[in-house]
Amino acid sequence: MSNVNLMCEKSFSEADQKIVDRLMELQQALIEGDLDKLDGMILDVDDFINVIGKYQSKSEFISQIRDDTLTYSNFDILNPTVLFDGDNSASLIANIRMSVEINGKELRVISNSVVGFEKIDGKWNICKWEN
Questions:
Q1: Where is 60: in which H helix or E strand?
Q2: Which fold has domain 4-130?
């Protein structure tokens, strides 16, 4: 059973749905701690703002998942909007409610998130995540 939920009444175009599905795939990998999947989905960028507002690189972010500094258990994507900038760049904007444990302290937060995507070799990869 997935702990990633899309909470939205609108329907999406096929292109928009691919972006939404990719975000849900990323969030499920975070919950499962699937480091190989995360490494393959996230581009080598320094443009992540984590749940507590700290800028960090991909390697720092994945390291926090690896050592259980950040442990995700649930995501609710609330009314996402997908915007395209050409054929190979997109952004998803949504409020995301998440359950996360940070250094052993459990939090339930709602974040106004912007997730950037870049299409490489036919796959949408995450290039930015601002919480």
A1: helix 58-66
A2: Nuclear Transport Factor 2; Chain: A, (3.10.450)
Q: Is residue 37's pLDDT more than 70? A: yes
- Provide the token pair at 124: 């949408």
36-40, 43-47, 123-127: the lowest-pLDDT one:
43-47
- Report which secondary-structure segment, H or E, holds 21: helix 14-32
94-124 burial, b if ≥16 CB within 10 A, otherwise e?
bebbbbbeeeeeeeeeebebebbbbbeeeeb
Backbone angles phi, psi at 36, to 5 degrees: -65, -45
* pLDDT score of 1: 52
Distances (CA, A) of 112 to 49, 59, 76, 82, 97: 11, 23, 12, 14, 9
Q: Where are the domains of the chain?
A: 4-130
Model pTM? 0.92
Residue with tokens 């997908």: 82
Q: Quick one: tokens of 116?
A: 């950037």
